Amino acid sequence: LVKQAWLNGVFLAADEAKLSPFDRAFLFADSVYEVTAVYDGRPVDLDLHLDRLARSLRELGFTSVPDRAQLMQVHDRLIEDNALKEGYVYLQVTRGAYGGRDFPAPSVERPTYFAFAEARALIDTPTARNGIGVITVDDIRWARRDIKTTGLLAQALAKTEAKRRGEDDAWLVGSDGFITEGASANAWIVTADDKIVTRDLSTIILAGVTRARLATSLAAAGLSFVERPFSREEALVAREAFATSATTLVAPVVRIDGVRVGSGLPGPVTRRLQGIYYTAIGADPGKAAPWLTEES
Ligand SMILES: Cc1ncc(COP(=O)(O)O)c(C=O)c1O
Hints:
By secondary structure, the chain is of the alpha+beta class. The chain has helices at residues 24-28, 46-59, 68-81, 126-130, 153-164, 209-220, 232-236, 268-280, 285-288, and strands at residues 4-7, 10-13, 31-39, 42-43, 87-94, 112-119, 132-138, 169-173, 179-182, 186-190, 196-198, 226-227, 240-245, 249-256, 259-260.
């Protein structure tokens, strides 16, 4: 359980954090969020997360602008107070509560700010070692998936269905048959001709921070990748598949709709990218991810 929260400028015990039911996040999901990984006691790519937060707010026409320096301090304090070595910080900004239920946004905004931190292993996890199985479901979300809102019902239902079917997660398929992204991750495959492929950025997917960081890191390692849509069918016959997100980093996907991807084990390209990504965030893969160099 989360013990501590930061709510509207105040650090308090999590069970003392109280919000109005008239908050527009509760009534309309009028709210955005970020989840920033913490490794070795430091937030990973917090700049990119705060850039995306500011963009999400702008795209939704928020008039208030968060105090970036304050948010950075809040991350540091939550990490320190929770003695976090590995885990994440959650940050949410809502358009606030105004004592009623009016659809139009108020002209004078009083946003709600909320954050907390949680310890959790990110690198040495069963997911990273063994990979995950995903199901595919129709992508029934709204059209602006580039904005990171807390309107996450479609994703929650997709993940619930995955669990119900005994799998770990869900990938979402557009009406055109192409995979958009994971329910809370970007989707990647390694094709039969060894190309690393992930969907190009647009309003129909979230521009993942992990995706961006992996992209620059793999380029720096002399690898290339292709940004284009790929279908469920192409994913089913891919050599490898993996997903990227702040809480799973680079997660091998070894099963799609019950069909083994490649050998059914995390593949060599995914392993290499895990190593590249861990190094990029300051980890020593030899120590933090020993399975990468173990005989398989
Ligand atoms: C729909 C969706 N796509 C992609 C991502 C990955 O983004 P990031 O790497 O910034 O965590 C997330 C993260 O929650 C997400 O919800």
